Amino acid sequence: MRVSFVIPHRKNLVFLQAAVRSIRQQQTAAGRALEVIVVDNASTEGALAWAEAEGCVVISMAANQGFGKAVNHGIRAGTGDWIVVMNDDVELETDWLRQLEAALERTPAAWFVCGKTLQFAARGRVDGVGDAISKGGTAMRLGNGRADGDRFNVGRATFFPSATATAFRRTFFEQAGLFDETFFA
User: Fold this and answer.
1) CA–CA distances in Å: residue 48 to residues 44, 51, 92, 126, 174
2) What is the pTM of this model?
3) Three-class HEC string of 64-132
4) What would you report as the CA-atom Rg of the chain, rounded to the nearest whole angstrom?
5) Under-70 pLDDT residues of the chain
6) Distance in angstroms (rounded) separating the CA atoms of residues 63 and 73
7) What pLDDT does residue 22 have?
């Protein structure tokens, strides 16, 4: 499985550095190279030079184009069979990719897989385990704000992954299309 990580970046180089380091741990654990693409949304803190020095593919945007457009540039540039869309403030557990690969082996027809994310400032609390859509059309993060525990360590089907850290089959984007570029975030 060839994997391309796409990280849109706007500010806070310290977060980006931690995110890329956590991907490099995945690389070591997987025993193979992983492509890391940083899409720089006009940051001003030296992220471009740092990411290039780290061996990342860097796409530089002259102005902040927003999340959707940045991620789409990264998806188009990626060479992997799987594209991981990941926020720049995410730190992956060392075995994150291995766990996702195991989930893919159990569900080979899946279009995407995502893991549990914990809150950055309160690591014992869940940020999300996927998203849900209400009958009224509003989204909500499943598990958000709750204490982490075994009930959040169980695999389950979801139709709404969060783009916080999700691995998508490249063919998903080929069939469904890319992110809505009017979604600025």
Assistant:
1) 9, 5, 21, 31, 29
2) 0.91
3) CCCHHHHHHHHHHHCCCCEEEEECCCCCCCCCHHHHHHHHHHHCCCCCEEECCEECCCCCCEEEECCEE
4) 16
5) none
6) 14
7) 93
**Which phi and psi (to 5°) does residue 65 adopt?**
-95, -5
pLDDT tens per residue across span 50-93: 999 999 999 999 999 999 999 999 999 999 999 999 999 998 98
CA dihedral of residues 43, 46, 20, 87 (deg, nearest 10): -10
Instruction: Give the C-alpha distances (Å, rounded to integers) separating 151 from 86, 116, 154, 156.
Output: 24, 11, 6, 11
User: Could you tell me how far CA 164 lies from the centroid of its own chain?
Assistant: 5
Residue the block writes with tokens 């996927």: 130
- C-alpha 126: how far from its chain's center? 16
* Amino acid, single-letter form, for residue 46: G
Exposed e or buried b per residue across 77-116, where buried means at least 16 C-beta atoms within 10 angstroms of its C-beta = bbebebbbbbbbebbbeeebbeebbeebeeeeeeebbbbb
